[in-house]
UniProtKB/TrEMBL annotation:
It comes from the Eukaryota. Keywords: ATP-binding, Chaperone, Nucleotide-binding. SUPFAM superfamilies: GroEL apical domain-like, GroEL equatorial domain-like. Belongs to the TCP-1 chaperonin family. The lineage of its organism: Eukaryota, Metazoa, Ecdysozoa, Nematoda, Chromadorea. This is T-complex protein 1 subunit delta. It holds the Pfam family Cpn60_TCP1.
Length: 208
C-alpha cells in the first residue's frame, strides 16, 4: 500500500514527517453491508499493478469457499506469469511420466527397478483419485488411460464431464506446467528426506 501511495512505512505516530506522507484524492470509510466497513482510497497518482478485492457472501461458509476459489485462481495466474507453459489436465502428465518410468524400470535391476516402479505407481494415484472423486471406476479408468498413453496418446486424461478417458486437450482442460513440476519436485524431496532420516538408503546401498 505504501508503494502505491508514494509514502514510507511509519512505526510510530511520533515519526510522522511530511516526507513520509503519500497523497490521494479521497480516503473514506465505507460500509460493505452489516457491521463491516473498509477504508477506500481513490485518486491515487500511481496505482501500479495493485488492487483490492472485496468478497461478500450470505454466510461465513460461502465467503470461505469464495476466498479459497479466488486464492486458487490467483495462484494459477502467478504460475503462468512465472512460467508461460500449459499441460493437459485430467492426470495426463502424471500418467505419461508413469508410463515412461515403467519403461525405464525394465532396464534397471534390483532395488532400482522397484523404486522406479513405485514412483510410477505414486504418479498414477493422481488420475486414480480423479476418477474416484468423479464416481468412475478408478481401476478401469487408470487401466484404459495407461493403455492410451502406451500407444502414444499422451494428451489423454480423465474426463469427469463425459465420464470416460478422452483427449483432454480438445476439451480445453489445461493446467500450468509449474503446478505439475512443483508437485513432483516437492513430493520427491519429501520422500528423499524421510529415507535419509531412517537410514534406509544407506542400508540398501550397503546390502548391494
Amino acid at each position: 500500500i505504501f508503494q502505491i501511495l508514494g509514502c514510507r512505512p511509519v512505526a510510530s505516530v511520533d515519526h510522522f514527517v511530511p516526507e513520509a506522507l503519500g497523497s490521494a484524492d479521497l480516503v473514506e470509510e465505507v460500509s460493505c453491508g452489516g457491521d463491516g466497513k473498509v477504508i477506500k482510497v481513490t485518486g491515487v497518482a500511481n496505482p501500479g499493478q495493485a488492487c483490492s478485492i472485496l468478497l461478500r457472501g450470505s454466510n461465513k461458509l460461502v465467503l470461505e469457499e469464495a476466498e479459497r476459489s479466488l486464492h486458487d485462481a490467483l495462484c494459477v495466474i502467478r504460475c503462468l506469469v512465472k512460467k508461460r507453459a500449459l499441460l493437459p489436465g485430467g492426470g495426463a502428465p502424471e500418467m505419461e511420466v508413469a508410463v515412461k518410468l515403467r519403461q525405464l524400470a525394465q532396464k534397471q535391476i534390483g532395488a532400482q527397478q522397484y523404486c522406479w516402479r513405485a514412483f510410477a505407481d505414486a504418479l498414477e494415484l493422481v488420475p486414480y483419485t480423479l476418477a474416484e472423486n468423479a464416481g468412475l471406476s478408478p481401476i478401469h479408468t487408470v487401466t484404459e488411460l495407461r493403455t492410451q498413453h502406451a500407444n502414444g496418446n499422451s494428451d489423454y486424461g480423465v474426463n469427469v464431464r463425459k465420464g470416460y478417458v478422452t483427449d483432454i486437450r480438445e476439451e480445453n482442460v489445461l493446467q500450468p506446467l509449474l503446478v505439475t513440476l512443483s508437485a513432483i519436485k516437492q513430493a520427491s524431496e519429501c520422500v528423499r528426506s524421510i529415507l535419509k532420516i531412517d537410514d534406509i538408503v544407506s542400508s540398501l546401498l550397503s546390502s548391494h
